[in-house]
Amino acid sequence: MARHMLVPPLLAFHLAMPSPQISPDPGALVEAERAFARDAAEDGMRAAFLAHLGEGSVVFEPGPVDARVTWEAHGNNPGLLSWEPEHAEIAASGEMGWTTGPWEFRPSGAADEPVAFGEYASVWQRDASGAWKFAVDIGIPHGPHAGPPAEPALAPVRPAPAIATTPADVLDAERAFVAVAREGVARAYREHGAAGILLLRAGAARAEGVDAAAALAARHALAWEPAEAFVSEAGDLGYVYGAALPLGAEDSAGYLRVWRRRPDAGWEIALDVATAPAREAP
Description:
Blueprint: E1 3-6, E2 13-14, H1 26-43, H2 45-52, E3 53-60, E4 64-66, H3 67-73, E5 80-83, E6 87-90, E7 96-106, E8 116-126, E9 132-142, E10 153-154, H4 167-183, H5 185-192, E11 193-201, E12 207-208, H6 210-218, E13 222-231, E14 237-246, E15 253-261, E16 267-274
Parallel strand pairs: 3-9, 6-10, 11-16
Antiparallel strand pairs: 1-2, 1-13, 3-4, 5-7, 6-7, 7-8, 8-9, 11-12, 13-14, 14-15, 15-16
Helix pairs in contact: 1-2, 2-3, 4-5, 5-6
């Protein structure tokens, strides 16, 4: 299990016992995501989400909420939500990773034409039995996709950092980024974004790469309030989620930011997703 930190208090650490040695394979996340999507097609969205969520999992409506409580309250919607992973990355310790890709919604089932489109992102963690469960699921809407999903791009598994890492380290990186963003959003992404950063914003196609991410983020300036921070056992992947407030707006939404720690350097943003307030979403 990932190490976990609530915000606040700043020192509320929850350190799990180390898990058995697992061979890190990002392809396992692709298979977990596809199994989730198959269950949604066969059993319905409510049943699939309840079967694949983990303890303490979070979804966004549009801010972060308890996934189990939310989906237990959902009715059995006849519509079909389908999705396919296009990117996957896993921690060197093999117990945490993330995926992202396109989604489509059909109002009555597979025979319908899709009426809504967008991108999703999921953070995955192995539970005590070794099964993959999603810890965070978030998505944004945009216009129709330009083409069919691409074959998944699997990030190479990097060596674990040679230093101990805690959730507080991820939160420090988050706060450093937020401080720079107050002075200039584009600058913050150029300073803290990974070379292949993926950035998702409602109403826009996915931005990939620092320049594209900086340009898109500058059009969606936000203030961030982190709620929880997590880090992998290897200390190479972490994530933060919380509230996102468009500057000048009254209603907040939510965000997820996945951080990657390079063995020879500090933290960089691998994935950044923010929802829009309900009345502003396209």
